[in-house]
Amino acid sequence: MSLQTRFVLYFGVGIVFFVFLITVAVFNRMEGAMSSQLLKQFHYDATHRISFLDNEFLTMFNELHTYTRLPMYRSMRYHELTLNSGGFKNDIRQLELYFYELIQEQPYLSSITFIDSKAFEVFKVEKKGISSNLRDLSLNKQVMFLSTLEKDKTMTITVRSNGNFNGFIIWIPVFVSSDTRYGLLRFELDKDLLIEKVNALLNFEEESACVFAKGDLLLEISKTQGICMTQDTDTWRIDQSLQLPGLDWKLALLVNKESVLKDIVSLKRLVFAFIFPAIALTSLLFTVLFSRHILKDIRLLVSAAKTIGEGNALEAPPLNRTDELGSLAVQLKKSSELIEENKKALEEKNSELEAFSYTLAHDLRSPLRSIASFSQILREEFKDKLDREGLDFLERILNASNRMSILIEDILNLSRITKSEIIISRVSLSDLAQTIMDQLKRRDDKRKFNVIIKSDMFADGDIQLLGLVLENILGNAWKYTGKNTLTEIEFGSKMQDGLNVYFIRDNGAGFDMKYVDKLFKPFQRLHMSADFEGTGVGLTSVKRMITRHNGRIWIESLKDIGTTVYFTLWETPVAQLGKKGS
After folding, report:
1. Which CATH number belongs to the domain containing residue 188 in this structure?
2. CA distances from 449 to 438, 442, 488, 504, 511 (A)
């Protein structure tokens, strides 16, 4: 994943996610505040509307009370006391006609009945007509109980049919004086009156109203069936008693919270469906444009770091900025200058050390040659004058001189490897390895062996140095498998992490991996000279030659099992290094 992609994902998506969280938080806060405010408003408004309904009923009751104070009742009482039956009948007729006109004008007034003080039902006025001299109600307990109502008092009774609410009856006593009771008026009102009054309270379609009588549902006006009996937390509700004489009625106004908040919900949907995606797209676009500017400078810094990593010097700071990236660019320039200074100092020291090693090794050759020559003359000409112990000492001097000569030669070769110029060409590693193995086989033609060399392995490099690399590694494999009944050596290659890794595997003596760090140091050996000959310089030379080909070398081994040597070439491509190695 590229840096720009990560930048857009982390920074851009981070901004979008942050804006999303802020938007959600703002809308939740707005919704909560509006919900709280609207709930208070609903409670306040619903309370006032129910109080208004109470006032309407109170006005209606007061109006009904006026019908108990008509002058006809006193006239009837007078004619009754004076035994004027004609006048009494005329008064009753006037009262019947008055109530008949009234009941025609009032659509929710079903009937009006007058019962005199003797509990006789004098008349009953309905919309369809008038009925007179109906019946004696002196044995009706309800009528007898209501006959005891005090002046200006009212009794209201609910009318039900098969459990359903059909209307209600209002009983009002008639007094012709402050203490003279003259009868009862019975007003029967249709349920549509209550339905109309309650419907008038509702402000919008989603609102519902419920009327309860002593806890039982009397009337439900709602689009949602059964809402009056549910306790839903998403429904706002206000309950208040109705001040109706003789009735324990309670009115509840309900509204679903979502219907009240539908405007803000619609706004939220609009924001998240259109506005928020636009903001997110703008944020991502801004992030891409901003990241391109930043990443351009970062790429310059990466390129500068890569230049330093390849051993080249920076001519100038890669950026001209005053922020942290500019400071990093200045530090890279300083690091490049410091590395260049250290590189030059190290090259001088290495040159001095190599010159000293070369001179020392070269100067040691002459006296060492003299020691070897005189020891050889002494052994040949004075052999009969030396005893066995003297001859043993002389043999040891000759062996030590030969070993010293080999060491000096290895040191000189190591110095030459460091100084020599690399000439790059296309080299067949398979052919080089096969030539080396043929030479080794001829030296020990009695050994049983199984050698596998992968065909068509090519590499760019110095043919002489690569030949020395394979000669050392294959020579070690041949040497350390010398005590085996069957020598097994394999030279192959494989792809690993995008690089071509070469390997040489054997079934030789192996070694303990805790000593692996000693392998590439000069004159460090992991086996006794009596077991396996050698000077301890070979792998040091191999590592230098591999390093000059910009590669790596490492070894894996198991004692008495075998060893595998791995190496790579040109981990930085040849084209980037030029035709000559560093």
Report:
1. 3.30.450.20
2. 12, 12, 6, 15, 21
Task: Tell me phi and psi for residue 419, to 5 degrees.
Answer: -90, -25
Instruction: Name the token pair of 66.
Output: 């006026």
CA 573, distance to chain mean position in Å, is 41
Tell me, yes or no, whether 380 lies in a domain. no
How many beta carbons lie within 10 A of that of residue 115, not counting itself? 26
Residue 570 lies in a domain: yes
Strand partners, 190: 167
Which DSSP helix (H) or strand (E) runs through 83? none
The residue range of the domain holding 153 is 67-195
Q: Tell me the mean pLDDT per 10 residues along the chain, length 582.
A: 62 72 78 79 86 86 88 89 90 92 90 90 91 84 83 84 84 87 90 86 82 84 79 81 80 81 74 74 73 73 75 69 75 80 77 65 69 77 78 79 69 62 88 91 85 92 88 88 88 90 91 80 62 66 86 90 92 53 40
Domain count, the chain: 2
**Is-contact 15 222, C-beta < 8 A?**
no
Question: Helix crossing, 324-381 with 276-309: angle to 10°?
Answer: 30
DSSP per position, 345-401: HHHHHHHHHHHHHHHHHHHHHHHHHHHHHHHHHHHHHSGGGS-HHHHHHHHHHHHHH
545 in helix, strand or coil? Answer: helix
Using the 3D structure, point to which of 180, 195, 210 is the last residue of a domain.
195
* Residues 75, 95 contacting (CB under 8 angstroms): no
Burial label for 72, CB within 10 Å (0-12, 13-18, 19+), is: middle
Counted residue by residue, the chain has a size of 582
Query: H/E/C letters for each residue in 219-287?
Result: EEECCCCCHHHCCCCCEEEEEEECCCCCCCEEEEEEEEHHHHCHHHHHHHHHHHHHHHHHHHHHHHHHH
Confidence at residue 449, expressed as pLDDT on a 0 to 100 scale:
86
- Domain-embedded: residue 19: no
CB atoms within 10 A of CB 171: 23
Ranges assigned E (strand) in 497-541: 499-506
pLDDT at 580: 40
Residue 460 in any domain: the answer is yes
**Extended strands (E) in 432-550:** 449-453, 458-461, 487-496, 499-506
How does strand 249-256 pair with strand 207-213? Answer: antiparallel
Nearest C-alpha neighbor of 427 from the set 403, 462, 399, 401: 462
Please state, in angstroms and rounded to a whole number, the distance separating the CA atoms of residues 326 and 303. 15
